[in-house]
Amino acid sequence: MPPVSRSASQPELTALFALVQQHFLDVIVPLWQGPGWNAGLGLPYEALDAGHQPLPPQRYRAMACARQLYLFSSLIGQVPAAEDRAAALFRALQQHFHDAEHGGWFYSIDPQGTPLDQRKDLYTHAFILFACAHYWDKVREPQVESVLNAALQVIAQRFATGDGLYEASLDRDWSSLDTGPLQNPLMHLAEAFLAMLSVREDHAVQDALVDLCTAMHERFIDPHHDVLMEKPLGAVDNWFEPGHQFEWYFLLESSPLLRGSTLHTSLERAFAFTEHLGVDQQTGAVRAMLTLEGLSKDATQRIWAQAEYLRALTLRPNSENAVLQQLRALQQRHLHAGGWYECRDENGGVSRQDMPSTTPYHLATCYRGLVDYLR
């Protein structure tokens, strides 16, 4: 990551971020260059334990490979061998997960490298598009752009439902599983579309992104509180997740194309409501899952939600004190000398000791937001 410019009005925040950023580069990234890397398969292990040993592998997911491809693409030119690792991850994505018969990418392979869950899910394809856009931006290799184009084509032709939304999951041969659209994969598709538009002018992607956000507002926004629900309105046992609210807010607020859209306006209005119900005012912890009445469906405090709240705060007006407090909360509650704590329970106790390979993506995007904020 590039060095942070120092502002006289932000010395404490700047100094704290320098420590956190150095922890990322000195502790977290090397975990995935060393013990977290399965050299035999050319893939990251799914998770490391507290002693930096790989958990016994049950599977390897294409999504996890793609998130690590994003991580090392973002570090090209800043971390030794980042470009070589990104190239290896890109090759692994094609070698292990691409479905040569039906197109698209499998969800997972088993520990021996054989296809395991062969369904095609939007979440995976969105992350492949997202990661390859960032990788192509760094290397500009024709093969990477061809994979980008293939991912775009599959998403448009196979997952699109014709109303601006997309199926969450399909069978290996693209037959329906009747999943319908779900919030989280759609959010990451929006993120992937934004990544595409940041590296290449593409009117079809721009139109698809606008249509997606319009449809999200119509189908997922609760009309009373303006929060984005996890399932379409009217679905049984629906809920919202503060971490996803903050993640969507950042994507919309940071995009000149989407800022001012109906979806952005709703999440802008809902920000204080989400903070009130979803963030512990004493610790800064972000709650996992809530009903609209504020009842907890899952009180777990996850590092990714903490990072997304912090990133969202960098785009809020007059937020310097809040950003400082939340960066301090992230450091004190989730980072430690050997890596990070993935989850705490509702009482603040560490409830997960393992460190998944997917989490550095959230930290990297959060820290990128802080770099831009401190500029």
Automatic annotation (TrEMBL):
EC number(s) reported in the record: 5.1.3.11
GO BP: any one term: carbohydrate metabolic process
The protein's enzyme class: isomerase
UniProt keyword list: Isomerase
Pfam families (UniProt xref): GlcNAc_2-epim (PF07221)
UniProt-recorded Gene Ontology molecular function terms: cellobiose epimerase activity
Family according to the record: Belongs to the N-acylglucosamine 2-epimerase family.
Name of the protein in its database record: Cellobiose 2-epimerase
